[in-house]
Amino acid sequence: MKPMRRYLLPIILIIITAAGFWYINNNAPQPKKRPPPRPASLTVNVIEITPKPFQITLTSFGQVSAKSNTTIASQINGRVVKISSRLNNGAFFKQGELLITLDNRDYQNKINTAKASLTQAQQELKLEQAQVDQAKADWKRLNKNTAIPPLVSRTPQVVSAKAKVSAAHANFNQAILDFERTKIIAPFTGRVLSKDVNIGDYVTANSPLASIFSTRELQVRLSLKNSDLAFIELPEVNINNQQSSSLAAVEFAANLIEPQTWRGQLVRTEANIDELSQQLFVIAQIDDPFSQANSDKHPLKIGQYLTAKISGKQLPDAISIDIKNIYQGQFVYVVKEGIIHRQSITILWQDDNMALIGAGLKRSDLLITTLLSQDDEGNPVQIEGEQAPSVPGKPKKRGKKGKKRPGAANNNSGTERAHKPN
């Protein structure tokens, strides 16, 4: 009897545990099924697509260079005795101004010598002509009806004397020219890039003295993207060098010292594609960059970088949108029948702010300008500023006493999620 009592208590505990487990397993609470929530209605801003005229502006940059630049060189030998202050590096000068003076004493002596030689040759010619007249008179007195021979009339001597006069005259003119070349004059109105001579230097013919450039116009070499070529009138010329199109306006800007702008125009297109960049280059020209009209600006420097805005074609009926409304460069979001719809587009041209749409959008489309995510596609949408449509509610289910059934949810249209534009 005692051994049975020893095993009875554990058996009773096992039975009680099994019964409890069975009861809990068969009476677990069941989750109540509820209808799926209605999708939240987004509030977005939209713009209506309206084709309108659009002025294309192309951007580029380049370095300032001189259209006309040259190196002043001496044409004669001599010692520098005077240099104008207008020849200092960076100085401006006007056409015809005296820039450099060479020692002219040797050339003055050459003028005097050449003048004496010329006078002597002229006198010899006059003597020969007098002898000719005397010889003709003597021949006629002795031989009345006979032609005078050339040797008797001293024709060879006269020709030789005339040649000596011509040579002496040429030497005299050359001496005067060399004397004038001791004064080096500015060939045009311009500015000095560098001075390569000092007072006391002895220079020879073709010695470089200074580097200068014309301030009448400057030019900038600008590159064009291949995608931009269809949207600009290039300044091309035909085989007769006749301009085939109007010159596009260009606005240049610099921020070297402070923000400044200059106006210019495209003047020509280069004949080749650049081998390294595989881009086409055009030449823009700035007229009178140092004129009185630009006196309030810091003077342009050769080699200075400028940004350029080039006036391209004006399209009469174009669809243009802000590039911030384009996703991955391939699609936009539009509203169609109250639903967010992703619309693929084709971009014809774009800059840093705007894009021209070639396909995918049409007149009266509602373009969403609010920032969205890919998960928002297909959701119902509420346009900012428009009244939301009324949503009928579900009839409430009540218990026997007219109260809400425990666990029943309030029926509504969902929480509206508003997206603010950037």
Biggest sheet: strands side by side, in what order? 3-12-15-14-13-16
What integer is the average pLDDT? 83
Q: Give the strand content.
A: 25-35%
Helicity range of the residues? 10-25%
Q: Given the structure, what is the number of helices?
A: 3
Q: Any idea of the CATH class of the largest domain? A: Mainly Beta
How would you characterize the largest beta sheet?
A: 6 strands, antiparallel, barrel
Number of domains: 3
Describe the structure.
- By secondary structure, the chain is of the alpha+beta class.
- The protein has three domains: 36-51 and 319-388 and 412-422, conserved putative lor/sdh protein from methanococcus maripaludis s2 fold, CATH 2.40.420; 59-66 and 216-314, Beta Barrel (Elongation Factor Tu (Ef-tu), domain 3), CATH 2.40.30.170; 75-212, OB fold (Dihydrolipoamide Acetyltransferase, E2P), CATH 2.40.50.100.
- It is built from three helices and 24 strands.
- The protein has helices spanning 2-26, 105-142, 155-180; strands at 42-44, 46-48, 52-66, 69-73, 78-83, 92-93, 98-102, 183-185, 190-195, 202-203, 208-214, 217-224, 249-254, 260-273, 280-287, 305-318, 320-322, 331-336, 339-344, 346-350, 354-359, 366-368, 381-383, 417-418.
- A six-stranded antiparallel beta barrel has the order 3-12-15-14-13-16. A four-stranded antiparallel sheet has the order 2-22-18-19, with no helix packed on it.
- β18 and β19 form a beta hairpin.
- α2 (105-142) packs antiparallel against α3 (155-180).
- The protein is elongated and about 190 Å long.
- It starts with a helix and ends with a strand.
- The model is unreliable at 390-422 (pLDDT under 50).
